[in-house]
């Protein structure tokens, strides 16, 4: 009688359709307490979970739907979930049972019935569901109501315009003030799902409803809290005070045990901060965000990884968060490699004069580890540290020289690559170490390292006594080198010639290389540059010297921070896939709705200046002005009106944004479908954003070109590292 | 904002159970399974695969979040702009539920109870991927645990008249969704116990890094208050501490009233039934306003001598604590090419000085290339010494430059957190209460 443990395992064998059918038929005759049917159905479900096709049993299985045993009903419904959609011609047989169950006394069964129906997108089923759903949304049992809320999203997916006409969106909206917190959060989840669709109604919150949702927060399950918190991003504060009040109510959620709740809370806080005016409060919130982020690092490696990727974004926009916590990111020997690499990046970001010594000591430690990838990153970070923190440069160089002495090839190569950048950052300061580097010429076999070495030899040919010999040696394999090394060679020998035009060796060398470049190479870049140099040297060597040896702009690693506007936007996706890959989701996820800060009187001037407006697909292409990468000039608070004019307001705001009673802007719900001017093209969501309207086209550099390893020329004025710049 | 579905793979990478990917093409789950298996196969080492794998094939760009549980892989696929942390938090919650239901989560238990696992999946994750109820308290009302089913069946057969909740011909609508009519989402209504008790375990874990020169680079103590509650009715509890300010950066179970904690530093809550984690915190040493390190309760002196094809070492461990440390374990990775190790144990100081299992043991695992030294009981005085040498296939061996040390300290807490009292209001019965302290540590000691 009792279920036999261990017996079920044998159900996991290839199903025999005929056998099951026979067993089911046999069970119809005599089946005490339905045990036989239960056993057969269990076998069938087991086969479904293994991916075996059980659909031929459709007719036999649905015979059992009336069995008054919940376990059996559940299994029949599982079967229907799997195969219902593939049997449009037979599904009508089940509809009467569905309808009966929708009105069962047991709320579990009512919920089960509508849930299962919502999984079967066949017109007859949807039709039947539409009627039932209306009752279920007002069911007296909260379990049914919360299930019904989610079903609305399904019905909406099947036919958005029809669901709107039937008034489901309004019904859902009314659920936002349900007495049961689980119902509220599920309604929020459903509305969010609808609002995230490109063809969906716009889901926005006003202050009253946002506050209502906040009060449901305390009684919701952790998942419900996530939906509610996330939906707060749909609320646009009109006044600083609104944003500040809301942040104060949300901030306690930082103490939640669920890591996803914590990260969602941080996302909301980051968002609200854009609309705040009180510097002290912003600073306070920033300080509050640090510890929970550190606490996430005591979780498993997977959570750590997600947290670290997000921290990296957050500290670029809000450098005061975690300012003093660099120790929390020290790598442990046993950390998985993906955690180590992410930590390393953050350590570099957090490095300042005050902690540079500690950070450097750690980096040196890592450079002696076994994992090649990690060691390389560590060595490179030492060089970047030298470039970023001037007072620490001496120590970093010392440490690089020590590493070069280890003669471990990949260490030496990385060291050479970063040394080149250090020379550019501190011209005339560290050239004394060149001989040491030259001792390791033979160790270099990677293009990047070789190119760096060649660059150093050419640039400082006047300070290296035997530069021509060394270059002559290296040039030996010129024709077999990759293009980047060949280009470096070409420029280097030209520089050498300008420095030492008297030397016969040099003359022969430059002649040889120019000849190769112009005659034996197919690469047009190389050939053109060869010709150019040749002519310059031939016509006017003095001008050539001026051009080739022109003073180079100093470089900094500071500008490898992301563009502020792009950051603001990415932070709206905190915790999501976008923040892991540091890309805007709609650039790599199909049908993802973009997010952008929305203008309001409360939006602070600096955020407005870099505002990226978001186009909906149906809108005509519009001019978008985005400040380029580089530092954001602090704007005086008296200037915002000018800044506003230069940026077109997002059109979403055109709709009644301060209408107190209307919490949803249901556009096109007047029965006109998508035909009205404001509506959306129907049934055409395959081509999400046309090229012309792609608001990120101009942001390509900000995302794609985000290579933190590459220091870039200082643009315009100096950023000065003033942390307060980013506060507002 | 949703998870597409969940797939459980056995150790060979074949699916055991997966949620119904009804709105996706049939190839969709397969694609993710393949992506994960490929990534795992390509990984040079265990645990080096990114936990979030981007799957960009076909037109569906999505990601696959995976964790290892009992030799199996649990993977949650997400598409759209979803928080991978939701996926991981859900996987954690689901694993916990499985543990709650089956005790052990293994291939065997899952296969034996696949129908229950499947029901649980349906109940915790709806097909549009919203995590629903994951509180074990509430689930137990909707999906019966295997032990409960057999009990119910037994009782039905013995006394047919017993009103069963979901067994037999009529569905009682009374208990069916009792969980959801309960005003408290984490606790079902109407719990009764003959013997009311609540137990708290305060577990603190120190994590630290000690640098080459013996200075502590970083050390933090993370604490957890684990509870086991068996209380009737709706017990409203208030837990106060004599020194609540040692707890910083707290994170609480949803049952804790956060405002009250902010105001009075008292934990006010209505607990769920059974086991749950009431709070996580970080220990903040009282004297320090700024960041400072908690002192590490032991010290290690390492004399390392690297030679060709191997090296020698002498390690001396000393306790700095009055309490006895237990199950101390020191691990030392000798490098990919290590072949063998030879050690001798000794101890010095006030202890007996005998070399035997009571004082410790060592072993070399030739598969993981790790030397392990264990001391079951480390008393407060005296020191323990491990001398030895190892051999390697290569001329310049590259062992880890760090020792991994783990230890436990029973009846001790780094923070000296002390419970002041536990008050029960809203119920009148007497309850038994208990608090226990326990500490452990994991230290990375570099040389």
From TrEMBL, chain A:
A Pfam family recorded for this sequence: Adaptin_N
Gene Ontology BP terms: intracellular protein transport; vesicle-mediated transport
Molecular function per GO: clathrin binding
Region (Disordered) location: 623-728
Keywords noted in UniProt: Membrane, Protein transport, Transport
Clathrin/coatomer adaptor adaptin-like N-terminal domain ranges (all copies): 23-539
Record's compositionally biased regions (Polar residues): 636-648
Protein location: Endomembrane system
Primary residence: membrane
GO cellular component: endomembrane system; membrane coat
Entry's family note: Belongs to the adaptor complexes large subunit family.
Physiological role: Adaptins are components of the adaptor complexes which link clathrin to receptors in coated vesicles. Clathrin-associated protein complexes are believed to interact with the cytoplasmic tails of membrane proteins, leading to their selection and concentration.
Name of the protein in its database record: AP complex subunit beta
Organism of derivation: Suillus fuscotomentosus
From TrEMBL, chain B:
Keyword Calcium belongs to the record: no
Domain MHD: 195-447
Subcellular localization: Endomembrane system
GO cellular component: clathrin adaptor complex; endomembrane system
Source organism, top-level taxon: Eukaryota
Keyword Oxidoreductase appears in the UniProt entry: no
Biological processes, Gene Ontology terms: intracellular protein transport; vesicle-mediated transport
Pfam families associated with the record: Adap_comp_sub (PF00928)
InterPro entries for the chain: Adaptor_comp_med_subunit, AP2_Mu_C_sf, Clathrin_mu, Clathrin_mu_CS, Longin-like_dom_sf, MHD
PROSITE patterns registered for this protein in UniProt: CLAT_ADAPTOR_M_1, MHD
Sorted UniProt keywords: Membrane, Protein transport, Transport
Family of the protein in this entry: Belongs to the adaptor complexes medium subunit family.
Name of the protein described by the UniProt record: Clathrin adaptor mu subunit
């Amino acid at each position: 009688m009792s279920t036999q443990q261990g017996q079920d395992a044998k159900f996991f064998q290839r199903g025999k359709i005929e056998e099951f059918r026979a067993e089911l038929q046999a069970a119809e005759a005599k089946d005490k307490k339905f045990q036989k049917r239960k056993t057969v159905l269990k076998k069938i479900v087991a086969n479904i979970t293994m991916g075996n096709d059980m659909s031929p049993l459709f007719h036999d299985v649905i015979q059992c739907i009336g069995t008054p045993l919940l376990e059996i009903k559940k299994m029949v419904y599982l079967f229907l979930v799997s195969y219902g959609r593939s049997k449009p011609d037979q599904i009508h047989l089940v509809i009467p049972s569905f309808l009966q169950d929708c009105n069962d006394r047991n709320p579990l069964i009512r919920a089960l019935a509508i849930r299962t129906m919502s999984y079967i997108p066949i017109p007859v089923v949807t039709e039947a569901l539409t009627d039932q759903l209306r009752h279920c949304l007002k069911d007296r049992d909260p379990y049914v109501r919360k299930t019904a809320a989610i079903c609305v999203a399904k019905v909406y997916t099947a036919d958005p315009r029809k669901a709107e006409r039937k008034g489901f969106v309004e019904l859902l909206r009314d659920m936002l003030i349900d007495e049961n917190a689980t119902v509220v959060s599920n309604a929020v989840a459903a509305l969010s799902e609808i609002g995230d669709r490109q063809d969906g109604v716009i889901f926005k919150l006003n202050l009253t409803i946002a506050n209502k949702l906040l009060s449901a927060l305390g009684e919701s399950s952790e998942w419900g809290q996530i939906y509610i918190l996330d939906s707060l991003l749909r609320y646009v504060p009109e006044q600083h005070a609104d944003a500040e009040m809301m942040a104060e109510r949300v901030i306690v959620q930082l103490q939640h045990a669920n890591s996803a709740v914590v990260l969602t809370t941080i996302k909301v806080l980051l968002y609200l901060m854009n609309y705040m005016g009180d510097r002290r409060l912003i600073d306070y919130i920033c300080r509050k965000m640090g510890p929970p982020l550190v606490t996430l690092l005591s979780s498993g490696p997977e959570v750590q990884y997600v947290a670290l990727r997000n921290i990296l974004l957050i500290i670029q926009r809000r450098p005061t968060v975690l300012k003093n916590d660099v120790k929390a990111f020290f790598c442990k020997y046993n950390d998985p490699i993906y955690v180590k690499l992410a930590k390393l990046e953050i350590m570099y970001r957090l490095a300042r004069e005050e902690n540079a010594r500690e950070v450097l000591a750690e980096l040196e430690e890592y450079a002696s580890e076994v994992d090649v990838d990690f060691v390389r990153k560590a060595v490179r970070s030492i060089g970047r540290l030298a470039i970023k923190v001037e007072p620490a440069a001496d120590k970093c160089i010392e440490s690089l020289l020590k590493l070069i002495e280890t003669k471990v090839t990949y260490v030496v190569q990385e060291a050479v690559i970063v040394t080149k950048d250090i020379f550019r950052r501190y011209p005339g300061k560290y050239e004394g170490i060149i001989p040491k580097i030259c001792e390791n010429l033979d160790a270099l076999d990677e293009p990047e390292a070789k190119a760096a070495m060649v660059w150093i030899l050419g640039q400082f040919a006047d300070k290296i006594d035997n530069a021509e010999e060394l270059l002559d040696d290296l040039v030996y394999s010129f024709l077999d080198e990759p293009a980047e090394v060949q280009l470096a060679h070409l420029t280097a020998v030209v520089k050498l010639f300008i420095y030492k035009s008297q030397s016969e060796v040099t003359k022969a060398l430059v002649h040889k290389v120019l000849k190769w470049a112009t005659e034996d190479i197919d690469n047009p870049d190389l050939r053109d540059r060869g010709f150019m140099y040749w002519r310059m040297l031939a016509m006017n060597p003095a001008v050539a010297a001026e051009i080739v040896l022109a003073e180079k702009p100093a470089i900094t690693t500071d500008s490898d921070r992301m563009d502020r506007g792009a950051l603001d936007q990415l932070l709206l996706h905190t915790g999501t896939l976008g923040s892991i890959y540091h890309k805007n989701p709609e650039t790599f996820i199909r049908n993802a709705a973009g997010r952008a800060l929305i203008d309001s009187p409360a939006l602070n001037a600096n955020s407005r200046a870099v505002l990226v407006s978001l186009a909906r697909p149906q809108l005509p292409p519009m001019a978008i002005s985005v400040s380029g990468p580089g530092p954001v000039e602090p704007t005086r608070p008296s200037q915002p009106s000018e800044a506003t004019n230069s940026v077109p307001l997002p059109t979403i705001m055109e709709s009644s944004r301060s209408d107190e009673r209307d919490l949803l802007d249901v556009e096109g719900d007047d029965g006109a479908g998508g035909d009205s001017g404001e509506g959306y093209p129907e049934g055409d969501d395959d081509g999400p954003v046309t090229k012309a309207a792609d608001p990120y086209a101009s942001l390509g550099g900000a995302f794609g070109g985000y290579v933190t390893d590459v220091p870039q020329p200082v643009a315009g004025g100096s950023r000065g590292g003033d942390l307060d710049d980013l506060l507002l | 904002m949703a998870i597409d579905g969940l797939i459980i793979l056995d150790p060979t990478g074949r699916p055991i159970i997966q949620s119904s990917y009804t709105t996706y093409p049939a190839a969709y789950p397969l694609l993710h399974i393949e992506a994960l298996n490929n990534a795992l196969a390509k990984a040079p080492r265990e645990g080096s695969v990114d936990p979030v794998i981007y799957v960009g094939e076909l037109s569906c760009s999505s990601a696959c979040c995976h964790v290892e549980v009992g030799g199996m892989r649990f993977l949650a696929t997400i598409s759209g702009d979803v928080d991978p942390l939701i996926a991981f938090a859900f996987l954690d919650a689901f694993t916990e539920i499985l543990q709650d239901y089956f005790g052990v989560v293994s291939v065997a238990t899952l296969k034996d109870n696949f129908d229950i696992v499947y029901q649980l999946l349906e109940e915790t994750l709806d097909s549009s991927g919203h995590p629903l109820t994951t509180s074990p308290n509430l689930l137990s009302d909707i999906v019966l645990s295997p032990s409960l089913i057999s009990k119910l069946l037994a009782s039905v057969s013995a006394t047919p008249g017993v009103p069963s909740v979901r067994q037999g011909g009529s569905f009682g609508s009374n208990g069916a969704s009792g969980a959801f009519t309960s005003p408290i989402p984490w606790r079902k209504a109407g719990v009764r116990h003959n013997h009311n008790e609540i137990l708290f375990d305060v577990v603190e874990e120190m994590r630290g890094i000690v640098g080459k020169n013996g200075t502590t680079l970083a050390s933090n103590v993370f604490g957890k208050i684990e509870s086991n509650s068996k209380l009737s009715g709706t017990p409203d509890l208030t837990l106060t501490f004599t020194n609540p300010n040692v707890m910083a950066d707290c994170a609480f179970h949803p049952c804790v009233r956060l405002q009250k904690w902010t105001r009075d530093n008292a934990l006010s809550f209505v607990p769920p039934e059974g086991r749950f984690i009431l709070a996580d915190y970080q220990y903040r040493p009282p004297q320090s306003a700024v960041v400072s390190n908690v002192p590490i309760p032991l010290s290690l002196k390492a004399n390392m001598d690297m030679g060709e094809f191997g090296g020698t070492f002498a390690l001396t461990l000393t306790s700095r604590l009055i309490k006895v440390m237990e199950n101390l374990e020191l691990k030392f990775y000798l490098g990919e090419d290590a072949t063998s190790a030879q050690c001798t144990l000794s101890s010095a100081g006030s202890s007996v000085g005998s070399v035997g299992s009571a004082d410790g043991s060592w072993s070399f695992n030739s598969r993981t290339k790790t030397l392990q030294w264990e001391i079951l009981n480390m008393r407060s005085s005296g020191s323990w010494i491990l001398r030895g040498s190892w051999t390697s296939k290569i001329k310049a061996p590259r062992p880890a430059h760090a020792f991994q040390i783990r230890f436990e300290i029973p009846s001790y807490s780094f923070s000296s957190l002390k419970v002041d009292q536990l008050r029960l209001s809203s119920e009148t019965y007497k309850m038994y209460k208990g608090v226990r302290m326990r500490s452990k540590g994991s230290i990375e000691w570099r040389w």
